[in-house]
Amino acid sequence: MKRNADIADMFEEIADLLEVKGEQSFRVQAYRRAARSVEESATPAEVLMREHRLEELPNIGEALAAKISEAVMTGQMSFLEDLRKEVPREAHRLMEIPGIGSRTAGRLVRELGVRSIDELEEAAASGRLKQLSGMGEKTVQKILASIQRYKSRPDRIPLVDALEIVERVESALAGCG
Questions:
Q1: Higher-confidence residue: 173 or 57?
Q2: For the chain, first and last CA: distance in Å?
C-alpha cells in the first residue's frame, strides 16, 4: 500500500522520465497535475479507491485512477517500471547535478549522447555543450561548478531512504513514551 505522497512521487518521476524522452509537454504536465492532486488530497488514495472515488480528484481520469489503484494494491506502477527500463539510467544520474533538470538531461542524452556525469563534464569543458540551443558560456560554467560541488560533496543518503529511517526512528521513540 502506498501513501498519497508516495503516489505523487511516482507521478512526478513519470513526468520527469517522459520529459527526458522528449514527450509532449501536455502529457508531462498531466502527470505533474495528477501528482499535486493526489498529494493535496485529504483522503488517502486507498480509501478513494475502495469507495470508487479516485476520479473525483481533480486531474484524475480513468487511466490515472487505474495507475493509482495499481500503486495502492501492489506498491508499484508497471508504467513507471517500464519507463525506468526505457530511459537510460545515466539520465537519472545527470539530474542529480544542480541545474540539470529532466528536460536538459533528456536533451543531453538525445542530442549529445552524454551518458554520465564524467561525459557531461567533458562535454562542458570541451565546448560541446554549447552546441545545444540555450547553452551559453555562463550556463556551461554554472554546470561545471555544479559538477565540481557534486563530486566534492560527502556521500549522502537519498532523501527517500533518509525519510524511511526517520519514520522508523520516530516509531521507535513513540514506543518509548
A1: 57
A2: 28
